[in-house]
Amino acid sequence: MLGPRADDERKRIRLQFEAGVSARETVLSLCALADSSLQQIFAQVVRVHNAEAPGLSLLALGGYGRKLLFPYSDLDILFLFGSDKAENEYRPLISDFSRILWDLGFRVSSAGRTLEECKRIEADNAEFHLALLDRRFLAGDSEVFEKLDTRILPTSEKQARPFLLAELDKLTRERLTRYGNTIFHLEPNVKEAPGGLRDFQAAVWLRQIAGERKETLKANAVEDELSLGAVDFLSAIRCFLHYSNARNDNTLTYELQAGAAERSLGVFDGVARNAAEWMRLYFRHARTLNRQLLRNLEQKAVLPQSLTKRFFSAARGAKIEPDDGRPFVVRDGLFEVLDQSAMSDRAVTFGLFTEAARAGTPLSRRAERGIAYIMKHPELTVRNPEISWPALREILGADYPGVALRPMQRLGLLTEVLPEFARIDSLVVRDFYHRYTVDEHSLRTIEHLQELADPPDARGVNFQTLWKTIDRRDLLIFSLLLHDIGKGMNVENHVAGSLQALDTAAARLHLSEEEKTEVHFLIEHHLDMSATVQRRDIFDPSTISAFAGMVSNQERLQRLCLLTYADIHAVNPEALTPWKADMLWQLFVATSNHFSRTLDRDRLHVHDEVLLLDQVAAHSRAAGTVEIERFLEGFPRRYLAVHSPAEIASHFVLYRGLAQQSVQTDLRQTGSAFSLTLLTADRPALFSTIAGVLAGWGMNIIKADAFANAGGVVLDTFHFTDLHRTFEMNPTEIERFRVNLAEIVNGKLPLEPLLRSRDVASRARPPKVAVDARTTFDQRSSDHSTLLEIMAQDRPGLLYDIGSTLARLGCNIEVALIDTEGQKVIDVFYLTEQGQKLTLAKQESLGQALQQNLNQ
Amino acid sequence: MMKLEAIIQPSRFESVKDALREVGIEGMTVTEVRGHGRQKGHTEVYRGREYTVDLLPKLKLEMVLPDKLVSTVVDTILKTAKTGKIGDGKIFLSRVDEAIRIRNEERGENAL
After folding, report:
1. pLDDT for A125
2. In what order do the strands lie in the sheet with A108-114?
3. Which of B14, B47, B59 should one mutate to test binding to chain A, selecting the residue with the greatest count of A CBs within 10 A?
4. How many Å lie between the alpha carbon of A664 and the closest alpha carbon of chain B?
5. How many A/B residue pairs have CB atoms within 8 Å?
6. What's the CATH number for A167-297?
7. Nearest chain B alpha carbon to A828
């Protein structure tokens, strides 16, 4: 069938497709049309050349070989020659044949090989060998084809299995990477993108090359049925795209999504869907194909091995890490489930995900399928179905939360814990900036953060320290899960919707008020840092001051900065340019420096803080606010920024206790660390004395701050770790510590014997990272004080030594901020001497004295 | 036809873009660039790490304009990108001999 008749037939096929004939029938009809056309032309050319074409065979390859010919697809054909002589003899015939095809408008992709050439593996052309797997005889000498099909290729394909498997694996992974390893593209390519038709074909090839046995094929029957449904759906889209674009363009654009949804393409349930709802169906099918491919990629080791190889692998066994009696184990770098029935206990399942998130070890596909089996069988009793916030926090706060959250989403466990997330499941939001669906974007933000453990490129280097040292990482990750939920809600502003989602999630999971406030802040302001970077002059101090005022403290700044980094990064691979990453970093640094350099500029005047006074009064059950005003007046504003009203109320209770006891302390365990709050009247060397007591008890100070109010009452907070587990092993020591601290601070006991009794062995431990000691004085940042910044190698007792030196040289600590990054100490002191800034001479002598201490 | 290149503060971009749209300029090429003229960089310290921010972030706008629009566009950029401080940027103008639209091979100002 040629010329106008072929065109008529093509039109007929198209009309039938548009009238509702399935894509499967459409591609078969197109294939039959192409077959008959090619056979006819081949016969004509052979006739013209007066040859019967012995030794020449025409083959269909690839998709055409599989009888899947889409409207504007190329025809992959092979001229197969019985010998070199035949190849030379048929050159003019092939030339005529190709010209006629071209003139008739066929898009042909042709190759020529002799039988001898087909025996050889072309190492740089794996695609050709893969296309040969789908060979089909079209015309010419059938004996030549038979020889290739039954004698030559079965042997050479068997020999080439390792090569073909490796190449297919490589080509597939390269393709998936090219599309960001996700099916969730807003305008997906239905052929090449993950979840596209190429995924299905690659999975079929993997099984074919690995020589999958019939019984394995049967075991996959259910999955195959799902896959075939997905293939039909995607084939319908591909036919539609070809007809709509009048070319081989497989991109499902926004415009065509709307067209496809309008005609309910590939859907037969009679339900009308808008484009976004129809795309959710697309993503479900794409997910089926992608999962099948990934499973096959993981299992390609079913490849038969030589006897020697089998012997050695049996002798070596899989690399298994000890399981400690748990129903899961790490095998060859992946978590495997040993006892599937144990997975019906959600506490165990979440235990597995917690381990995965801590170690960054993914679950194997088999483990996921084991859990999926439990999830899909409601008749199996689920134990401990309710997951508490502390259990979820373990996952969110780990080093690799994305390693757990990704499979949790695939398995439906994420929406079980956080039903709000279902609102953005496979949700397409139409803009030209985002590349991924909203759920995919949200999970990617988290994965970009966990990559900061070892940044894959220069953009992440500056942010690495922030990720490693962040406080309450769980709140940041929780905010990222929720920050765009509003996009799936019928609200004008998605931020407002996301905050509504936080309300329900926080109530269900029982977040504390402080936790909810922090998450609320991050969601509410998740666009603000990015907007400041792009729309404000970040080199203008007033911009920094206003931004710092909005953020209010360093901890929030760190979380907001990481959130912004991740949020921009997960929009599309190019969104976070090095330029933008640098701007973001500079805004972070400028704001962070603003916090540490302007501490005593803004002091608290309580008559401006009516609401706070009432809140503190309510929390502390105080009769009035006069005493609270006296307590708060004159504290640096940072004090409000880092403490909640409830915490301030508890400090106020301590303040009231000063009338009975001159040193008030509050010691609490916070996770693996302790926090000590001490209130007392200011006195010389107070800060260094407390630091000395902690050092004497073997405690490692990781963070501290010291504030004083207008009445000379000092409030010092120390966060420390108990290096020798003294408090854990001997809880009674906690009370002895309090008494000992109060007595030393009050001067009833000397500090030196305690310090001497501390085992000096710990001082001798070599540092893991060498940090050069450095002191810097800054006279400009504060109106009243000299700022001293110290960077040094951390060691037990260092803060005591610094504090003692300051006290010895008559320096008064107005404010102190103590921080550590691993073994690096970063301290900022606001110092005065007799109410004035330090003189240059004093700075010099202090600098020298400190250098001696720091270099010890 | 003139080619206009403007180096502006990133923070002024939205205003410049909106103002250009109002005078009928929709198309432009925007590039993220770093550099400095008389506005030198500064030294910043963060946690003991000192670094010099000597190349400041700027945006470069490029557009080719028909002669009759050049002065309007220049005025618009001057008005909206100016803060009066050092570092506001610069505008460069150069003559363009020819423009060709690849799709239909139109030439001259019709191709803009």
Report:
1. 82
2. A108-114, A75-81, A56-60, A136-140
3. B47
4. 33
5. 46
6. 1.20.120.330
7. B47
d(CA A347, CA A413): 12
A717 in helix, strand or coil?
A: strand
> What pLDDT score does A214 carry?
44
Q: pTM of this prediction? A: 0.74
- Residue A62: CB atoms within 10 A of its CB come to 25
Task: Measure CA A48 to chain center.
Answer: 64
User: In angstroms, rounded to a whole number, what is the distance separating the alpha carbons of residues A348 and A225?
Assistant: 32
Q: Decide if B97 touches A, using CB distance below 8 A.
A: no
Task: Write down the H helix ranges in A598-678.
Answer: 610-620, 626-632, 637-642, 645-657
Q: What does the pLDDT read at residue A593?
A: 87
Q: Does any CB of chain B come closer than 8 Å to the CB of residue A778?
A: no
Contacts of A777 in chain B (CB under 8 A): none
* CA–CA gap between residue A3 and residue A11 (Å, rounded): 13
pLDDT-flagged residues of chain B (< 70) = 38-41, 47-52
Q: Is A295 on the interface with B (CB under 8 A)?
A: no
Flag residues of chain A having pLDDT under 70.
1-3, 51, 212-224, 299-324, 378, 432, 759-769, 856
Residues A177, A186: Cα–Cα separation, whole Å:
16
Residue with tokens 């795309």: A279
Q: Are A106 and A34 in contact (CB under 8 A)?
A: yes
- Distance from the A496 Cα atom to the nearest Cα atom in chain B, whole angstroms: 25
Could A534 and B44 be called an inter-chain contact, meaning their C-beta atoms sit closer than 8 Å? no
| Residue A408 and residue A532 in contact, taking contact as beta carbons nearer than 8 Å | no
CB-based burial, A519-545: b 16+ in 10 Å, e otherwise? bbbbbbbbeebbebbbebbbbeeebbe
Within 8 A of A538 by CB-CB distance, chain B residues are: 11
Three-class SS state of A406: helix
Q: What is the pLDDT of residue A216?
A: 46
| ipTM > 0.85 (yes/no) | no
B84 touches chain A (CB under 8 A): no
Q: Does residue B86 belong to the interface with chain A, where contact is any CB pair within 8 Å?
A: no
Q: Cite the beta strand spans of B2-105 per DSSP E.
A: 2-8, 29-35, 42-46, 49-53, 56-65, 89-95
User: Contact, A854 vs A790, CB < 8 A?
Assistant: yes
What count of Cα atoms within 13 Å lies in the side-chain half-sphere of residue A155?
9
Domain-wise residue ranges, chain A: 3-159, 167-297, 418-597, 599-655, 658-759+767-854
The SS3 call for residue A815 is: strand
Residue A740 confidence (pLDDT): 93
- Does residue A831 contact residue A786 with C-beta atoms inside 8 Å? yes
Q: Looking at domain A3-159, which CATH architecture does it have?
A: 2-Layer Sandwich (3.30)
CATH fold of B2-111, please?
Alpha-Beta Plaits (3.30.70)
Which two three-digit tokens encode residue A395? 């996952």
Best interface-test mutation with B: which of A459, A463, A469, A539 has the largest number of B CBs within 10 A?
A: A539
| Dist. CA B22–CA A174, nearest whole Å | 45
